[in-house]
Design goal:
Length: 745
Amino acid sequence: MKNSILLIVAFLVSTVTMAQDRKQKDTEWEQKFEQLGTMLPTPNVYRTASGAPGHQYWQQKADYKMNIVLDDNNQTITGSETITYYNNSPDDLEYLWVQLDQNMRASDSETPLIGTSSMKDSLDAIEVFRLTGDQDYDGGFKIKSVQSAGKDMTYFINKTMMRIDLAKPLKAGENMTFSIDWMYNINNRMTDGGRSGLEYFEEEDNYLYTIAQFFPRMAVYIDNEGWQNKQFLGDGEFALTFGDYEVDLTVPSDFIVGATGTLQNPKEVLTEEQQERFEQAKKSYDKPVIIVTEKEAKKNEKSRASGTKTWKFKAENVRDYAFCASRKFIWDAMAVKLSEGNEPLAMSYYPKEGNPLWEEWSTVAVAQTLKTYSKHTIEYPYPVAISVHTASIGMEYPMICFNYGRPDPDGSYSDRIKHGMIGVIIHEVGHNFFPMIINSDERQWTWMDEGLNTFVQYLTEQQLTDKLGYEFPSKRGPAHKIVDYMSGEDGLVRPIMTNSEQIRQFGANAYAKPATALNILRTTVMGPELFDKAFKTYSERWAFKHPTPADLFRTMEDASAVDLDWFWRGWFYGTDYVDVDLANVRWFQMQTEENGLETRNIKGSAQGIDGDGSNSFGSDPQAFIFEESTGKYREFNETVKNDKIKQSAAGKNFYELTLKNQGGLVTPVLIQWTYVDGSVEFEKIPAEIWRINEREVKKVFMKKKEVAKIVIDPDRMTADAYTDNNVYPRSNEGDRFEQFKEGRD
């Protein structure tokens, strides 16, 4: 009877305590294991609850035929394009929206107005230039005409967007053709910045052009948004429609050109010897073949041809177009065998200033990227993948990208330059997959291309170990490298699910954190095999389509049978960080006549970590009394065998761990047990251990051997922000945690 009264009192006290805890948790803590529910858009016939395209999924198409002239004397681009637009939507369209991204440089652009700046005691030349601007530069598109069937069309321009009004609606299932003539002055990237433009080499009076966003491009019309006509302010990149391209590029006759697509007329633009090398490259799988040599490039640098050549290219099922052109280019290429009949060319274009680094590493990095990404996403479907060298840039387009990494003038380079160059090439070539093929909306969600791409970039970098002779020093991807950002000042940290133009700490938020999240999801939560299957399913489902964040979240769960709502909620929708505090440890053994343990400490002070952080682990264990059960255990038919259970517990060690979630972000708990005999055991506790109490949990572990040390997340796999409170016994730096918390507050 006495025991029953004690149990009732304990239950009532526990109930009151639980109610108080629940009230506090409801007011101070969100329900971290609550399903995302209405946070995600409602599934429909276009996008299913499984994350797959629905049975009525549709998307528009836009085909382009373009004639482009690059004037090297005046640094201008003049173009004439014919667009055939296919309305595959169920809607009739009364007007079309066209992107004019070069207008961010126009005189009425809002881009310089929304930028913030402050004065310093000293400003370098570039800083002063960007405050004063180039007063002589006339930026933006000059639209000469917009016509259909030879008749002028009505249009108006709203900064970086142009609306074309239709004489009659373009009905569902129909297509129409119209043309735009235009020109613009090419910007100097080295002073004006930008993703596209020219680099000037003053010593020899030569230009190197990396040209993109150079033509009016169709905006996306999509099922979940309608027209994506959000203005281009400079950060949010591009939402674009797939189509086929036929492009004629007219340049000085001593120029070498690389572009999206397959070169259609090599005999007209290359020498016979260069044509032979080009054919050799298609059969070279071990090392690049030099198509235009450094000697030839140096000779071109000194020439000034008066005539022009037209390079003709075709590209199918791409969402954009870009090209490079210069008389300075060295050009090399090699074949990459992905499967029978699929052997794309990995190619590089670079001036002599890039050597010897570029000749040695660029095309090798391109080839490795195609192999690794093809393994983890879809097999690379395009005929070429090109890396172009120019200073101070990393930017991507279908089949072609522009990359930094320049040695010193004497050809020497540091490991930092080498690793930076290899990393940026992998990253930008990797963008062929995200978002050039798996075509997310960069204007809205930077992380869907940058974050996913940075994650697979990390996997690719690690594959270069054999070629380098050491492990590549990846900057983004490993869990511990995101700690400083995630545990930083609250006002500077925003959720991953933030619009591209509102992100603070752009690189950490849109690149590093989502990449790290996916790496942790792969290695710590799901395991590589299960994650890889689900991630590949997402890639295959949404290749050449327009996925949204919900499509990724739902597919990863659908293809794996793992409930990940808690993970998306914490990592992508919140700003909490990981900090698991091993707050207390108690050691017990069952009392027997042999061990003579006293029972008086059962309700006394805990053995293990005392309140001041000192270690009392070397003390004797506490005792617990084995009480025999009578009769049958609840509704089970088998009588509990007390002697057998008592025998199994005899001599065993029971460790009660108290874990506190100091950072707020729920996480799996990785435990390393080191025993007195020197042996080590690893144990992983799923994140769901926090499902009832997100702030503090206790768990008892039975161990046959006596424990000497316990470490939470010993290999730094969870991005735990503070590791001194992960160790038992505590180190002498136990007071640093309070200092850390005060600094964050």
